[in-house]
Amino acid sequence: MLQTILGATLRWYQPNGWIFDPVHMSPDTIDYTVVSGPHTGRHAVQQTYYHRVAPGIELTSWYEEVGTVVNIIWYLESQTSHRFAALPAWAADDFSVLVGDNRDPQYLDGVGELAATRPDGPRHLLSDDGYFELL
Description:
Shape: globular
Order of helices and strands: EEEEEEEEHHE
Largest sheet: 9 strands, antiparallel
Number of strands: 9
Strand content: over 45%
Distance between the termini: 14 Å
């Protein structure tokens, strides 16, 4: 059984065709690329907050540059996950605006302008279950 999500590299599947591949988990960051789903092509490195909830159950949470709040519970034994995310209204209206690399200053300027000029709410909420495979 996987002992911790930290240090793992995985492929993560979520409903509606979302596939994140690869996903690199470190103690304070998640580095992911979306290869399938509404915002295929997005690459991001996010600062995470990590917590071991119980043996075999770990939580990562982060706040994205676009304003999305994400919480993932990782069930290590079953290699499943539960995601709760709250996306700004402007991002959920057109997921394609999230395509890019959050380390690219031009991308950050573009999403920053959208965040400053478009409505934040009502937030688009995701609460769903997925699974992952170790790579």
